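Weekly structure sync, notes
Attendees: PL, DS, HV (note-taker this week)

Item 1: Cytidine deaminase
DS walked through the input record. Source organism listed as Rubrimonas cliftonensis. Sequence as pasted into the shared doc:
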Amino acid sequence: MDNLFRAATDARLNAHAPHSGFKVGAAVLTEDGRIFAGANVECASYPEGWCAETSAIAAMVAAGARHIAEVLVVAESGETITPCGGCRQRIAEFGDSETIIRAAGPEGERARWTLGELLPAAFALKS
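Item 1 (cont.): predicted structure, written out as tokens:
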């Protein structure tokens, strides 16, 4: 948890959020113990930005990893921040119903769920 929290917190500091000012960091832990971090990247054309979770997953995929064991999202907010619906589906693409999702603020973990709790009917293509 400490390494995941540190990676997400460090990534959050580098977020590009000139429009909202709302910086988010995320880190994913793979089944083989590697950690990949990402930050939100806003764009003047709002729908074209990337969530922190998307950035972390992209880094993971670029490194050749394909399975998420755990995700930690950190943001400074009075509310607990969870992955958006699109990110939940992206996590489902590389995780499973038991993948742990942790939400944190700068002070540390605030809540945790399994992906199955946050996205009980994830869309999946059957091969």
